[in-house]
Write a structure and sequence with these properties.
Elements lengths: L6 H8 L25 E2 L5 E5 L2 H4 L12 H7 L16 H15 L3 E5 L2 H4 L13 H12 L3 E7 L5 H7 L5 H18 L5 E6 L1 H10 L11 H25 L5 E6 L4 E3 L4 H14 L1 H9 L4 H7 L8 H7 L5 E5 L5 E5 L6 E3 L20 H13 L4 E6 L16 H19 L4 E7 L18 E4 L4 E4 L1 H12 L1 E2 L2
Helix pairs in contact: 4-6, 8-10, 9-10, 10-12, 10-14, 11-12, 11-15, 15-16, 16-17
């Protein structure tokens, strides 16, 4: 794929020698002289990867015994998806996975984070597993390993079996928590001989409030806050039960963690008082999920704020939820809040965003590279985490193919360069970030936006399914090859 345009050709077309795209990987560089720029390097064992999710890329929604998910139902309902599309075909990754593994290889990435579709494995969410349910993932994993790419599997990336939603209300019921643990144990028993690292659930902070409270995502419900809080608790319980199931059914050395779109808090000005206030804000604004998982308790502030809407739980459930994990995945895109210290409870103020605050093609995706520094740093400090992965980071862009057929997504290159620079800063300051998964490998079904928002470093023509590397793919390949940002 990359042979279509060389580094030298690309640099000549764009005059972007500062990206280092024209120099071959491994080229010798002279020692830096005093006062000259030194590239921001990463640890020699830093893991570079990329990521997708099942419903967004696989397609093949009715093949090999797969049951319907809540996103199948939601996407097919009139008015839910901006461009009236769905994930029936998506990127056809189910049939094109070998070629897509080749795209990862061409980037030089050594890890691929993908998700497993629960309704492929248990079409009804529970009961007898589908015999063909894991066959696709067997093939995918074998292809990854053959290519020298390590698989990182996510067990839940939003595609809940529709049958569970209809029968018990999905995440409103602890029956779904127990069903998820059974599913997790089955998957790990089958795939754990080749997959060493599992994420349990992805972005509880999105799929619960958006799906059960705001009606924006599947299953499209607008429930009272008490039920939303209870659903979140059941997801936390599902995570804890799944960790226990993975420990019981996995091989020695199997690692497990969670991937969460942490509510990222950034000090508005880096004073000691503001940094401490931001630390408090990060704990309290993530108290409903991350904090209870990592400490086994809901904070007093969260319970006081929730009041009568607080989730109902038992001491035994809290113990299960806090079952120890091996790493923490953080999905980092935009700042959640800028914070200043306050003399009033709870000790911090959340500042309003100015209307002119810069953002990418998605209005919600405000540009704030410092988020990539503060989010992992504060998470490590608050919860004493010693292994963090940036499980998602990337941006949408209004990508257009130029007359020569290429996609010059300079805005995405700018975004990645600046965010990765702040990630390197965090690591240099001792924050234990072990790896980075770029979102996303290729353009795909972007949930409620359909195919109108493109996050990939590979352009996908959804009519022909042709993949084309964008400028950002060359940039990311160069970063990986150098294990550094800059020339």
């Amino acid at each position: 794929m990359f042979k279509k345009i060389s580094r030298r050709d690309l640099a000549g077309l764009l005059g972007l020698s500062a990206l280092g795209l024209a120099a071959p990987a491994g080229a010798q560089r002279s020692a830096a002289k005093p006062g000259t720029y030194v590239p921001a390097s990463f640890p020699k064992d830093f893991l570079w990867g990329t990521a997708t999710s099942s419903y967004q890329v696989e397609g093949a929604v009715d093949e090999d015994g797969r049951g319907p998910s809540i996103w199948d139902t939601f996407a097919h309902a009139e008015g839910n998806i901006e461009d009236r599309s769905n994930g029936d075909i998506a990127c056809d990754h189910y049939h094109r996975y070998k070629d897509d593994v080749g795209l990862i290889r061409d980037l030089g990435a050594k890890a691929y984070r993908f998700s497993i579709a629960w309704p492929r494995v248990f079409p009804d969410g529970i009961g007898t597993p589908n015999p063909k349910g894991l066959d696709f993932y067997d093939r995918l994993i074998d292809e990854l390993l053959k290519t020298g790419i390590e698989p990182y599997a996510t067990l839940y990336h939003w595609d809940l079996p529709q049958a569970l939603q209809e029968r018990v209300g999905g995440w409103l019921s602890s029956e779904t928590s127990r069903a998820f643990a059974d599913y997790a144990g089955h998957v790990v028993a089958r795939l754990g001989d080749r997959v060493r690292s599992f994420f349990t659930v992805n972005e509880c902070g999105r799929f619960v409030p958006f799906g059960y409270g705001l009606g924006i995502d599947a299953p499209g419900l607008k429930l009272p806050q008490a039920e939303v809080n209870q659903a979140r608790h059941h997801v936390a319980l599902a995570h804890g039960l799944a960790v226990q199931a993975i420990r019981a059914h996995g091989r020695a050395g199997t690692r497990v963690g969670v991937a969460e779109n942490i509510t990222s808090c950034v000090p508005a000005i880096d004073t000691e008082a503001n940094i401490e206030a931001t630390r408090v804000a990060t704990r309290e604004l993530n108290a409903g999920f991350l904090n209870v998982i990592l400490t086994g308790a809901y904070t007093e502030g969260f319970l006081r704020y929730a009041g009568a809407t607080a989730p109902k739980f038992t001491a035994e459930e809290l113990k299960i939820i806090a079952t120890p994990t091996d790493f923490l995945g953080l999905n980092i895109y935009a700042p959640g809040h800028y914070i200043t210290a306050s003399d009033r409870p709870p000790g911090f103020d959340v500042l309003p965003f100015p209307s002119a605050f810069p953002h990418m093609s998605s209005d919600w995706l405000r540009i704030a590279p410092e988020t990539m520094y503060w989010a992992p740093r504060l998470a490590a400090e608050i919860w004493n985490v010693d292994a963090i992965y940036i499980s998602e980071n990337g941006t949408s862009s209004i990508d257009r193919r130029a007359g020569d057929g290429q996609v010059y997504d300079l805005d995405r290159v700018m975004f990645l360069r600046n965010y990765l620079g702040q990630l390197q800063r965090a690591i240099a300051d001792g924050v234990p970030v072990k790896g980075y998964f770029l979102w996303s490998l290729m353009d795909n079904f972007e949930w409620i936006y359909g195919y109108g928002k493109r996050f990939g470093v590979y352009w996908v023509d959804f009519e022909t399914q042709a993949r084309t590397p964008k400028l950002s793919a060359f940039f990311y390949r160069d970063v990986i090859a150098r294990n550094a940002i800059g020339a």
